[in-house]
Design a protein that fits this description.
The protein is built from 2 helices and 9 strands, in the order ααβββββββββ. By secondary structure, it is of the alpha+beta class. Strands 4-3-2-1-9-8-7-6-5 form a 9-stranded antiparallel beta sheet, covered by helices on one side. The N and C termini lie far apart (about 50 Å).
Length: about 140
């Protein structure tokens, strides 16, 4: 009986932590490469660079570039099995900012043929000044 309980606990634990690797989750939406897109009337681009263990997403518009790296072994991202959407959060270590800051990535496919990439960096200094940034880009599948 103890062996059965131990086996069930292990199986349940493995199921909780089972998740699509980040590289595969992003690959199902778009393969590695650079994609031109738009953010309203503004032109932008998304670059996807994949290795065996990680994938880096970079959003570039005319004035800046920001990126986020998803590591397969990390538990900081989630994949929606129904929609294929990928979301990730990363705690930043900037002592100048309250709680160091936070970086958030969302990749959401729509029902037609677009994938929306958004990347937010939330930073607030100790005087209450908001230093946050946001970038998004919609690209065709």
């Amino acid at each position: 009986m103890k062996l059965l309980a131990l086996a069930m606990t292990f199986l349940f634990s493995a199921t909780l932590f089972a998740q699509s690797p980040a590289t595969e989750a992003v690959e199902r939406l778009l393969t590695a490469g650079t994609y031109d897109g738009s953010n309203g009337s503004e032109r932008c681009s998304v670059t996807i660079q994949a290795t065996q263990d990680s994938v880096t997403i970079a959003i570039t518009n005319k004035t800046k570039k920001d990126s986020f790296t998803l590591i397969n072994a990390s538990s900081s991202y989630k994949v929606n099995d129904n929609t294929g959407a990928v979301s990730a959060i990363l705690s930043l270590n900037y002592p100048r900012y309250i709680n160091g800051g936070t970086k958030i990535l969302n990749i959401v496919p729509d029902d037609i043929d677009q994938v929306e990439f958004s990347l937010a960096q939330l930073l607030e200094d100790h005087q209450g000044n908001d230093m946050s940034t946001y970038a998004s880009c919609s690209v065709a599948k």
